[in-house]
Amino acid sequence: MDDKLVSNEWHTDQYTSDQETSFIDNKNTNNKLSTQNELFLSEVLQGLEQTQKTLPCKYFYDEKGSILFEEICELDEYYITRVELALLEKIKTELAEMIGKQAIIMEPGAGAGVKIRTLLKALNNPESYVPMDISKDFLFQSCETIQKEFPNIDIMPIQCDFTQPVKWLGQQKHDNKIVFFPGSTIGNFEKASAIQFLTNMHDLIGSEGALIIGVDLLKEDKVLEAAYNDSLGVTEAFNKNLLARINSDLNADFKLDQFKHKAILNRQLARIEMHLVSQNEQTVNINGESFDFSAFETIHTENSHKYSVDSFLALAAEANLKSKNTWTDEQQLFSIHYLVRG
Ligand code: TRP
């Protein structure tokens, strides 16, 4: 058992047959981009060519970004993690009863694994845990911690972009497939991609399984705005880390002090929008291409959609999923849903 704890002995390759999965080892040493970075570059260029410039948000989560995101989760203003964890703590016995025995628990975007530990502790003899994350080192580290705490659970990490299909998962014949998707990450998808993701989960869990999903609720402006404009500037550092990553991986010259983070609540679209605001008129070069910014022009980097219980369940219904149970905290800040095939 213990030899599995050595990081590089976690077997990722065998579980990832239908997508390129190495988002690591991509430091640019000889001016030639790796295949991964070619893809990264094309997505970056495409985003910056739009009238409203955008950047692809999945690239937030390199190792530094993953660490910064964990720091966000510990901020006072970022109520999401705290409230979800407390709610999970409160309902864990109920969840464990609904999940039953010998479950295989899959977690897309597993991150540091704090929430899963609460769930695994409550479960009756779970069989295996399959964390998926784009950041490999981060994923392996948290696997080690979890394996130590739960020596009897099989842990099978998959390094992947979970928005893309992972063939190995679909092939698993198992009666009790549970997908755990906390953190309101579903809110980071646009409607069509959210439905696509939920549909993939519908297909994955089969007729006996379930999707346990955390969804942040729409609420008053100041609580939402503070959560994404924290006073310590961690969210700013997280947002700007994307520019730093483009600089180092894609031969770019973003001047980090010439951009400021700004999160705006867009009530009409029920979402928080994250932007990076150019402080001046300036030109940025990326691998030989140049992009002009006017003063106060923004790059839109991320959205975080907020739902009501009803609007979320309507979305889930579009993927043929229905709620077997839905819980919210007393202040109606956050919701957790136990979804099964409709
Ligand atoms: N899933 C998180 C959320 O929407 C992601 C997040 C939190 C985020 N803070 C951010 C993404 C700042 C980009 C920038 O709450």
Compact summary:
The protein is of the alpha/beta class. The protein has ten helices and 14 strands.
**Level-2 CATH architecture of the largest domain:** 3-Layer(aba) Sandwich
**Name of the level-1 CATH class of the largest domain:** Alpha Beta
Number of strands: 14
* Helix run count: 10
Largest sheet: 8 strands, mixed
The hetero compounds bound to this protein are:
tryptophan
The fraction of residues in strands falls at 15-25%
Q: Which of globular, elongated, flat, extended, rod-shaped describes the shape?
A: globular
Structural class label: alpha/beta
**Superfamily (CATH H level) name of the largest domain:** Vaccinia Virus protein VP39
Which range best describes the helical content: under 10%, 10-25%, 25-40%, 40-55%, 55-70% or over 70%?
25-40%
Q: Calculate Rg over CA atoms.
A: 20 Å
Straight-line N-to-C gap: 40 Å
Counting structural domains, the number is 2
If you consult CATH, what is the topology of the largest domain? Rossmann fold
* SSE string: HEHHEHEHEEHEHEHHEEEEEHEE
Average pLDDT? 90
Structural description of this entry:
- The chain has two domains: 45-59 and 221-305, no CATH class; 79-217 and 307-341, Rossmann fold (3-Layer(aba) Sandwich).
- 36% of the residues lie in helices and 23% in strands.
- The protein has ten helices and 14 strands.
- The protein has helices at 35-48, 63-73, 79-99, 114-122, 136-149, 167-171, 191-205, 221-228, 234-249, 309-318, and strands at 53-54, 104-108, 128-133, 154-155, 158-159, 177-181, 210-216, 259-266, 271-278, 282-286, 289-293, 298-305, 321-328, 334-341.
- Strands 2, 3, 4, 5, 6, 7, 13 and 14 form an eight-stranded mixed beta sheet that branches. Strands 1-12-9-8 form a four-stranded mixed beta sheet. Strands 10-11 form a two-stranded antiparallel sheet.
- Strand 10 and strand 11 form a beta hairpin.
- The chain binds tryptophan (TRP).
- Tryptophan binds next to helix 9 and strand 12.
